[in-house]
Each structure stands twice: as structure tokens, then as C-alpha cells.
């Protein structure tokens, strides 16, 4: 029995062992199969990746070939269309280097003292750097709007008279009352195309008569079709600042003296309720700033713009520069697509190009330029000033020219307000305009200075473009502009018209003299303004005692000094305007401060965009 039991147990163990061995074999086979499968899958994936890479490389090669073909075609077209432009562009680099050399030689020759000679000679070491930096900067920045028309005339006025235009007699009568006889070049080129219903992209130097170029044809179109107030708004003019809108509105009002069509203005700072009442009666020709216009389009039911015929965008580059891009895009999307549009821009940036594509349809490009970027009658000079003598030179100049009409430009609102309060305190009456001033006070200062035969206006760049102030004798740039384009717009406030003359002076410190090279790049003729340093009225101790004793002036001086440094940090031309080159103790003397306040110069500011004052 024991033997049988042993045999049975042994058989059972053998069976179990066989089963285990069979299971092991099966598992091994499955594992081997899985390994083989994964290897095959990897091989397939690798093959697919290779095929994909080959196809990708082929596509890239095809794209590169297509791009090369496109570039070749573009080059051929450009050569066929603009042979003359290519010749001028080929000589630009040679001219630039010659201009820079001449400017450096001028700087050397114009200085009288040996100390100044040694200082200016130090610029020669930076000559090569300035050449390359200027070319890079100007190529990267805004490109001038180019015209397909050749500018054969160099005179400000054309030979065409307003009497010869195909416009209504009522409009001709209004022009006669305003003593307008001959058309300017921009008017002679724009008006016929506008009357023929074409979209226009225009560029002209400041003071060229651009306002009449779009007002005359748009008013005539409404008069010709008998556009009534009940039809709503037929002409919409968008401008960047309140002052520009008011100026356009005044000209429009004078032109429409014998015309039944209504006109109006809506700008920030005015009562919305009063503007709504105007819409009830109907505004045929509407001048507006973008923010207030969009507000009424969204919230005022009485505002009828579905019958719009003409849209005019004035100073488009400046509109986008001061942050109205979103508002402009929303406004254009709300307007009827079947309309005539005119867009005027001094420069063509990428943002302006996108606005052109959005608003214009097959526009006619019109440009009125001369070889010199500024008016030939304008006398331009720079004054080399010591860092702590800037205000003393300004005071001396203003004191000796109180019978003249003078505009003084600053780079921030606080400086304008401080120097306005200080100069009025020491019996030199001044007006002031800046972005932080209330609208009614800004308007009063603007109108008072415009109507005055003599006076001093302190302002920021809010007055640098478009404002037509008559008979300005001197433009003083106490703080330098951000770039050459801004310089051109500032000095454009004088010599407006054919028979007017004027002068422009820019204050530059020794380390800022490289800015002259940027002006030479634009063929701006500028010479050194010679003055006797011994004749400067030294009231430094008097100013310091006034600022120290007067709580209001002392507080304003500290704030203005900080604002001056912050605005200096935001200059785009870092090779010229470097805040580290300033002597803070000497700079504070111009604000009547004995000791400069603490200012953190390592502020993390957004230098990409400088807000327009």
C-alpha cells in the first residue's frame, strides 16, 4: 500500500512538472513573438520616418525654389518700373558717408575755442560706428511713402487756380473769401483724383496744404448730390488730436459758409449729451477723434453713418503711434464698405500698411517731396550748450525776443508746466499746451497764442504736427526730439505758407552732437548757432532761491526733473541720448535745484514704444 501511494504521488508530481514546463515554453514563445513584433514595428516606423523626411526635404526644396523664382520676378518688375529709383538708391550709401564726413568737418570748423575743437575732434573716433548705426536705424525704422508720380515741381504752389477747378460756385466763393487763389502741389495732385472717385494714399511734408486737399472735394461731393441733414453723416474725418480736429473744423466751417450741408465736431473733453443733440439734427461733415467717435458709434442711436460717402484718415501714422490701432480697426469694420477713402501718412510703417490694406481699394499713391526735407526758407541752427546752462540760455533768448512769436518744445508734460509757472513768476508771460492739461484750458492757450502777434508757447509734441499757427518766428527745441522725423515735424510749425520766414534752434549738449549726423542723413541743412557765452544772463542764484523758498515751484521742479530723466531713458537713439552720460547735479541746476532728488535710473521701462505727449 505504501508503495502504491508513493507511485501515485510521484505520477501526480510528474504531471504538475510537465504542466509547468509546458506553460514556461508557451510564455517563452509569446515573449519571443512579442519581441519580434516590436522589432518589426520599429523597422516599419523607421522606414516611414525616412520616407517622411525625404518628402519634407523635397517640399522644402520646392518652397525655396518658388521663393527664389518670386524674388527674381519681383526684381525684374522693380527694374522695369523704377529705373530712376534704383539709380538714386545705389548712390544713397555714398551720399550718406560723404554727408557724415562733411557734418563732422562742419562741427570742427564752426567752433571758435580750442576746448571746443578738442571735444568735437573726439567724435572722429566714433565716425565709423555712427555711419553703420545710422544706416541700420533708418533702414529698420519707418519707410517713406513712395509715389509712382515724379515730382517735377520744386515750388510750393502750382500754377492751377481754384477758379479753374470743376467744383461748385458756392465753394469757390468761400475759397475767395479766405483769400485762397492758387493750389499747392498736394492739392493740385489730390483734388482731381478725389473728385473722380478714387481712393488716395497721400504723403506730403508738413504745412503743404493737405487739409484743403481733402476738404474741398469731399464738400463738393456732398453739395453735388444734395446730401441732406436727415441722411446723417456723409463725410467722416478722423484726426489724432483734439487741436487738429478743431483746426480742421474751423477751416471746414469757413469753407461751408455758402453751403447748406451741416458740419460738426466730436472730441474727448466735451459734453457727450451736447454731442448727442447734434446727431439728432444730423451732421453731414463730421470731424472726430477715434475714441469719442467709437463711443458714439456704439452707444448713440441718433448717429446715422450708413450713408457714408467719404472717409478721411488724417495723420494715420500718428494715430497708430499713440495707440489708436484697435479703435481705428473697429471703426472701419462698422462703416459701409462702399465708400471712398483717403489716407494721409507722413511715414509708412507695418501698422500703416495693414491699415491701408483694410481701408483702401486700389489707391492712387501721391507724394509731394523735395530734395530737402524742410522748407528752404527756414533757417536752422544748433546751439552747443553746457549741461547746467540750458535754462540760462533759454531765458536770455526769450528775454531779448519778447516782441517775437516763439514756440519752445519739451519732451514731457511736467517740464512744460514747471517752466510755464517759473517764467510767469519771473515776469516772462507764456502760454502752455501739454497732454495733462484740461481740454478747455488747452483750447484757450491754443487760440490765444494763435491770435496773438507775439508771445511764447511752451509745449510737448502734442503741438508738433498739423497745428497751423500763423507767423511763428522761432522754434526752439529745448529738449531734443526722439528722431529726425520728429525734428522735421517740430520745425514745420514755422514757415507755413509761401511768403513766411522763420528760424529753428535746437539745444544740444556735447554728448548729443551725434544727432546732427542723423539730420544730415535726411539732407537737413543745419549750422552752428554762434553766441557769446559772456552775454548769457546769469540768474542761477536768483532762480535757486525762488525755487527753494516757493513750496509749489520746489515740488514742481523735483517732479519735472524726474520726468526729464524718465523721458531721456525712453529715447530710441541710444547711441546719442544715453542717460548715463548726464551729470545729474549739473542737469538739476536747470530746474533751480541745489541738490538733485533721488531717481532710480534702472527703471524697467517699456522702451519699445514711447507714448506721445
What's the CATH class label of one domain? Alpha Beta
Largest sheet: 7 strands, parallel
State the secondary-structure class: alpha/beta
Give the overall form.
extended
Instruction: Give the helix tally.
Output: 21
What is the rounded distance between the termini? 116 Å
Helix content: 40-55%
EC number: 3.6.4.13
Catalytic activity: ATP + H2O = ADP + phosphate + H(+)
GO molecular function: ATP binding; ATP hydrolysis activity; RNA binding; RNA helicase activity
Keywords: ATP-binding, Helicase, Hydrolase, Nucleotide-binding, RNA-binding
Q: How would you sum up this structure, described in words?
A:
The protein is α/β, with parallel strands linked by helices. Among the domains are: 157-368, 3-Layer(aba) Sandwich (Rossmann fold), CATH 3.40.50.300; 378-590, Rossmann fold. It has helices at 2-81, 83-110, 114-121, 127-140, 169-177, 185-195, 210-224, 242-255, 272-281, 290-299, 316-321, 325-334, 350-359, 390-399, 413-425, 439-451, 484-491, 515-521, 540-549, 551-569, 584-589; strands at 157-161, 182-184, 200-204, 235-238, 263-266, 285-288, 310-313, 340-344, 364-368, 378-384, 405-409, 431-433, 455-459, 474-477, 502-508, 527-528. The strands form 3 sheets. The protein has a 7-stranded parallel β-sheet with strand order 5-6-4-7-8-3-9, sandwiched between helices. The protein has a 7-stranded parallel β-sheet with strand order 12-13-11-14-15-10-16. A two-stranded antiparallel ribbon has the order 1-2. The protein is extended, with a radius of gyration of 35 Å. It starts with a helix and ends in a 24-residue tail after the last helix.
Amino acid at each position: 500500500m505504501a508503495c502504491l501511494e508513493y507511485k501515485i504521488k510521484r505520477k501526480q508530481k510528474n504531471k504538475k512538472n510537465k504542466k509547468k514546463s509546458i506553460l514556461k515554453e508557451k510564455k517563452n514563445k509569446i515573449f519571443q513573438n512579442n519581441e519580434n513584433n516590436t522589432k518589426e514595428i520599429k523597422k516599419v516606423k523607421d522606414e516611414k520616418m525616412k520616407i517622411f523626411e525625404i518628402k519634407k526635404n523635397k517640399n522644402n526644396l520646392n518652397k525655396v525654389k518658388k521663393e527664389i523664382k518670386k524674388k527674381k520676378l519681383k526684381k525684374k518688375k522693380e527694374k522695369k518700373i523704377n529705373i530712376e529709383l534704383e539709380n538714386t538708391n545705389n548712390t544713397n550709401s555714398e551720399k550718406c558717408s560723404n554727408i557724415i564726413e562733411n557734418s563732422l568737418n562742419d562741427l570742427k570748423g564752426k567752433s571758435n575755442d580750442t576746448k571746443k575743437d578738442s571735444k568735437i575732434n573726439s567724435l572722429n573716433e566714433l565716425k565709423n560706428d555712427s555711419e553703420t548705426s545710422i544706416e541700420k536705424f533708418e533702414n529698420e525704422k519707418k519707410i517713406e511713402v513712395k509715389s509712382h508720380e515724379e515730382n517735377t515741381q520744386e515750388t510750393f504752389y502750382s500754377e492751377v487756380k481754384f477758379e479753374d477747378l470743376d467744383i461748385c460756385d458756392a465753394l469757390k466763393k468761400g475759397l475767395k473769401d479766405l483769400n485762397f487763389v492758387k493750389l499747392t502741389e498736394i492739392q493740385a495732385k489730390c483734388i482731381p483724383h478725389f473728385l473722380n472717385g478714387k481712393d488716395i494714399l497721400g504723403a506730403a511734408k508738413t504745412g503743404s496744404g493737405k487739409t484743403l486737399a481733402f476738404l474741398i472735394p469731399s464738400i463738393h461731393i456732398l453739395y453735388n448730390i444734395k446730401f441732406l441733414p436727415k441722411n446723417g453723416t456723409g463725410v467722416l474725418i478722423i484726426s489724432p488730436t483734439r487741436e487738429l480736429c478743431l483746426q480742421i473744423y474751423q477751416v471746414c466751417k469757413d469753407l461751408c459758409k455758402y453751403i447748406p450741408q451741416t458740419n460738426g465736431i466730436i472730441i474727448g473733453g466735451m459734453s457727450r449729451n451736447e454731442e448727442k443733440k447734434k446727431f439728432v439734427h444730423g451732421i453731414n461733415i463730421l470731424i472726430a477723434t477715434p475714441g469719442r467717435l467709437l463711443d458714439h458709434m456704439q452707444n448713440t442711436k441718433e448717429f446715422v453713418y450708413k450713408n457714408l460717402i467719404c472717409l478721411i484718415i488724417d495723420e494715420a501714422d500718428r494715430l497708430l503711434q499713440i495707440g489708436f490701432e484697435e479703435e481705428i480697426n473697429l471703426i472701419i469694420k462698422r462703416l459701409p464698405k462702399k465708400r471712398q477713402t483717403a489716407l494721409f501718412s507722413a511715414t509708412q510703417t507695418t501698422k500703416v500698411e495693414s491699415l491701408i490694406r483694410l481701408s483702401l481699394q486700389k489707391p492712387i499713391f501721391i507724394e509731394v517731396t523735395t530734395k530737402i526735407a524742410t522748407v528752404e526758407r527756414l533757417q536752422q541752427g544748433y546751439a552747443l550748450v553746457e549741461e547746467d546752462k540750458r535754462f540760462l540760455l533759454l531765458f536770455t533768448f526769450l528775454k531779448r525776443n519778447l516782441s517775437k512769436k516763439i514756440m519752445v518744445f519739451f519732451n514731457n508734460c511736467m517740464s512744460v508746466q514747471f517752466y510755464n509757472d517759473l517764467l510767469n513768476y519771473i515776469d516772462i508771460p507764456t502760454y502752455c499746451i501739454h497732454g495733462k492739461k484740461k481740454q478747455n484750458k488747452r483750447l484757450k492757450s491754443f487760440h490765444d497764442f494763435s491770435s496773438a502777434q507775439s508771445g511764447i508757447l511752451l509745449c510737448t509734441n502734442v503741438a508738433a504736427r498739423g497745428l497751423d499757427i500763423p507767423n511763428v518766428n522761432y522754434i526752439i527745441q529745448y529738449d531734443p526730439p526722439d528722431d529726425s522725423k520728429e525734428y522735421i515735424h517740430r520745425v514745420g510749425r514755422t514757415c507755413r505758407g509761401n511768403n513766411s520766414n522763420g528760424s529753428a534752434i535746437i539745444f544740444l549738449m556735447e554728448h548729443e552732437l551725434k544727432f546732427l549726423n542723423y539730420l544730415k542723413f535726411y539732407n537737413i541743412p543745419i549750422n552752428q548757432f554762434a553766441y557769446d557765452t559772456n552775454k548769457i544772463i546769469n540768474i542761477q542764484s536768483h532762480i535757486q532761491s525762488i525755487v527753494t523758498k516757493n513750496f509749489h515751484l520746489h515740488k514742481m521742479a523735483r517732479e519735472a526733473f524726474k520726468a526729464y530723466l524718465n523721458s531721456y531713458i525712453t529715447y530710441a537713439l541710444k547711441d546719442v541720448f544715453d542717460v548715463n552720460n548726464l551729470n545729474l547735479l549739473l542737469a538739476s541746476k536747470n530746474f533751480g535745484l541745489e541738490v538733485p532728488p533721488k531717481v532710480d535710473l534702472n527703471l524697467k521701462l517699456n522702451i519699445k514704444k514711447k507714448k506721445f505727449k
